[in-house]
Amino acid sequence: MKTEQYDAIVVGAGHNGLATGCYLAKSGLKVLIVERNDYIGGAAVSRELYSGWTYSNCSYVCSLLRPEVVRDLDLARHGLQVIPYESGATFMSNGDHFAYYSDHDALRREIARHSKKDVDAYDRYSKFVTKQCRFIKPLLLRTPPDPVRFRPRDIQELLYLGKRFHDLGARDMADTLRFYTMSVGEFLDEFFESEVIKAHLAGSGIIGTGLGVYSPGTAYVLLHHYMGEVDGSIGAWGFTRGGMGGVSKALGKAFEASGGTIKAGSALDRFLIKNGKVEGVVLENGDTYTANTVVSNMDVRRTFLNHVEDGELPGDFVKAVKRFKIRGSSGKINIALDGAPTFNNIPGTANFLRGDLHASESLDELERAYDAWKEGRWSEDPYFDMLIPTHVDPTMTPPGKHMMTLFIQYAPYELANGESWDGPNRDAFADTVIDKIARYSPDFKDLILHKEVRTPWDIEREVGLTEGNIFQGELTFDQLLFNRPVPGYADYRSPIRGLYLCGSSAHPGGGVMAAPGANAAREVLSDLGRKGFGRAA
Amino acid sequence: MTGHRPNLKDGLPVRRGLVETPFDRHLRPFSLAEDWMPWAGFVSARRFETVEAEYFAIRNQATLFDISPMHKYAITGRDALAVVNRLVTRNAAKLGDNRVGYTVWCDEDGSVIDDGTLFRFSETEFQLCCQEPQYSWLHDIAWGFDVTIEDQSDTIAGLALQGPTSFAVLKEAGFDGVENLKPFGIMDVASGLKISRTGFTGDLGYELWVEASKADELWDRLWPAGQNYGLRPIGGEALDMARIEAGFIAARVDFQPIHDAQRPSRGRTPFELGLDWLVDFEKGHFNGRRALLEAQRRGPRTLLVGLEIEGHKPARDAFVYHGKKKEAGHVTSALWSPTCKRNLALAELRAPYGVSVKDDLWVEIYHPKEGKWEKVMAQAKIAERPFFKNKRRSATPPGLF
């Protein structure tokens, strides 16, 4: 057992914890990051589980990572490289497909193949969504105001928010309010008539969410997936060279270059709290580290319900944390492939095969997939987001071989009848997905060399995300802005003095964004009366 | 000195109009964009698909850029070294055999005529590779020496194979020995085919120089080998992005070649281009030496510098100011660098700016915003070049990606 003293301790080396650590260390603080796993990255990791094949085990594509953070922390110099991918597609059971070209004119022609009317509708849709992105983007790296406290900074932020909202113009203000609360299904129905086009676009509205395409609040989830960018191209997504672990690796290097210390394989037992003030952390192995500032990268539930004793927290806070929605809804499969799979009626050179691929062709089908979730089953006809990053990234497999990453929805955390996910159910879940892909790719099954199947249970156990919820809490309007994670505590602080949240449970939510991490660091530095640095401080 | 005229040995009969390079028939099918441009009388691709995808292929995979239109001159004969050393500002005697050196050459006033790469195969065998035509200038320089100058621009074709998997592609194609080739080295790999470890991207990369008649053979060997390494053809636009990141200057963009300038004031010395290291006063007489000695004593009138600019709007064609008020120069090349994640530029500053006054620099950037021009005054800092640095560029043996 040892005891060491630091200026600040971050619990969890997820990308947000690392980002917070970087900013704090850069300001001159002596910072320690403790991480339960033997590797850093949380849900942004690249691991070789089959010799020669590297997987992006959890998160798999990059867009939301704030460019301000990348620049502040000089992540490019520390090896981060994000390569945008082109296009995407939805395969259809009649042998046709819908290709979502990134080239605007090519896309218009493709849409016309499915519906002439939807061609211009797409432009209208796209303009609306981009407008919403412009509205929300500047809010990502700001601490939300508390509308009931009326401190000068709350009033200032409310005015800022009000002004931006007002700048949308009268018509869009009304539409914006509707948009934030409506379902992605209704939203798309207002624009499009083609089922496959709606289904292709709707995926972004349900990913990571325990809601269906017709559940209110899912339209915002779609926006959440659009508001990122790659080099200024709004809504673009890219592959991180070497897998998503590349993000964490670069952050880790930046952190260590600023003098920070990472201790992996160091699981937290509890926060040290005295008289409502945090004093450090105690690890499971008994080691104690003291600091007056402790920042938790864990989700809000885990942080306060598992590692803080009940008596230390106000009752209404505990109640609010307990009702915070953080429901498991998805699974993940990573597959090592012996070659590039071919898809029915599509030439291997088609550029959209380098993008995100799907096989859900109507909103009805997606809604039925959600029915299974409600009943405690995985969807028998699941939605998936399927990518083969090795069409672009030469570093993850031997030449000519490929790696496929699959995000699958829906997979509930609790199976009906209290059944276990471990064992036959995990295999059966994987078979459901693989059989569905094989309907569109005749050679797919024969190419499988190895697979990593991750149920909500696996994600919770390995990454520490409650219920395996990828966003550390759902992105519905009741859990956004000043309500994230709970009302009164959207400023990264907690009822315990010196204890902060920096994970995706905090504003602006999930995705490999590093915004909560950067924002939390700014609040910590402000409490310490330290001048930060650069723009984000 | 023998006093007789250099032997003239011309190439093929002159073809008329804009012509195809020897690789054209292989490249053309890849052109989905149909976006071509003229380059030294040849048809050259500006892009094949999207500039973005081609740019990222340079920094992530492997790319082929057809450099056949480059001007290539063979300088051979007993006095080849003497002629070359009279031409260029650096000392070609210090360049080893089978080595390549970047160089510039000047007129009598010390103004740069062009820059390019000098290939030294031996003391009697050189090749000069450059952007601007130099045939008659080379003859002027060679007057009185025992050399032959041959314009090989039409007879030698070239492919730049650049990117992190470029070595893997060569290996797959069976070019043995390439693993030992160091940066700026040249090797003969087959009859009529040379590979040099050079390029314009600042990344791992090679240039393949082949007799035009053997271009098909080379293509057929290279292209299939690249299939599992992400090999794709690229156009000049993507390459230009990589060359700015690499900090390389381009003739007529970052400096005005003096033979192409009406106004003598547009001439720039190597010092003014930040190329002091290329000038060797100890090697004996060379063209422009006296003027350059004087220029060195006087100090640069202007200086080409690298800038890192705040924000993300590329500072193309922007003016540079000191203290936001006093005009200090202008940007010559600029881009948002997707790899460095920095807003970069090359700029020509007027002394003392960039020379003794290096702070408080601002760039006035104009950019269109939905039908309205907006103006930003963005702070700029002088930054070291190359902007993009990666160990894989010089690792020997090189990595596979």
TrEMBL record, chain A:
GO MF annotations in UniProt: oxidoreductase activity
Amine oxidase domain location: 17-512
One Pfam match: Amino_oxidase
Cross-referenced InterPro entries: Amino_oxidase, FAD/NAD-bd_sf
Self-association and partners: Interacts with COX5B; this interaction may contribute to localize PYROXD2 to the inner face of the inner mitochondrial membrane.
Function in brief: Probable oxidoreductase that may play a role as regulator of mitochondrial function.
Protein name: Pyridine nucleotide-disulfide oxidoreductase domain-containing protein 2
Species in which this protein is naturally found: Hwanghaeella grinnelliae
Lineage: Bacteria, Pseudomonadati, Pseudomonadota, Alphaproteobacteria, Rhodospirillales
Automatic annotation (TrEMBL), chain B:
A Pfam family annotated for this UniProt entry: GCV_T
Presence of keyword Transferase: yes
GO CC, one annotated term: cytosol
Domain GCVT N-terminal intervals: 42-283
Ranges for domain Aminomethyltransferase C-terminal: 304-389
Domain of life (superkingdom): Bacteria
GO molecular function, one term: transferase activity
Keyword Lipid metabolism included in the entry's annotation: no
InterPro entries in alphabetical order: GcvT/YgfZ/DmdA, GcvT/YgfZ_C, GcvT_C, GCVT_N, TrmE/GcvT-like
Binding-site list for substrate: 207
Keyword list, A-Z: Transferase
Designated name of the protein: Aminomethyl transferase family protein
